[in-house]
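Sharing a chain and its predicted structure for anyone who wants a worked example. Both blocks are below, sequence first, tokens second.
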Amino acid sequence: MFTLLLAAVVAVLLMLVVQRREQHRETLRATVLQTQVDLLKTAAADPQLAWVAAGPDLAGEGPAEIRQHLFCDAQVTAWELHWRIGALSQQQLCAHAEALLADETGRRYWERARSARLGLAGDDSKLRTFAAVFDAARQKTKTAAR
């Protein structure tokens, strides 16, 4: 009986350790995502930083196109942060994705950012779902445009 009780206590303690570790990781991810949004906002406000933040995919684009891309990236990253912490339902995320991709600027952004965002998702099921929602919204806008 004592052995069974001890095993139960150890199991509960292990679950708490694993849960705390996961909470800590999510807190760090949220902090990193918020920092990324802040950096994108800074880059969008400064043309010299915008060129750096935009990367080679936007090398031939003008300042307005780069600012639009950075704004979309900051917006999507903010939604990702809300999604990760559970402050955004899948239905809400779908609505945001559809609204962003209803416009040509949003569609251009997703075409440029899609592969990088999918690459970052890796084995993370939450991020894969996040990207899949945007892919579904993109497909929906393609179908509606026909």
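Comments welcome. The helical segments are 2-45, 47-54, 63-84, 90-101, 104-121, 125-145.
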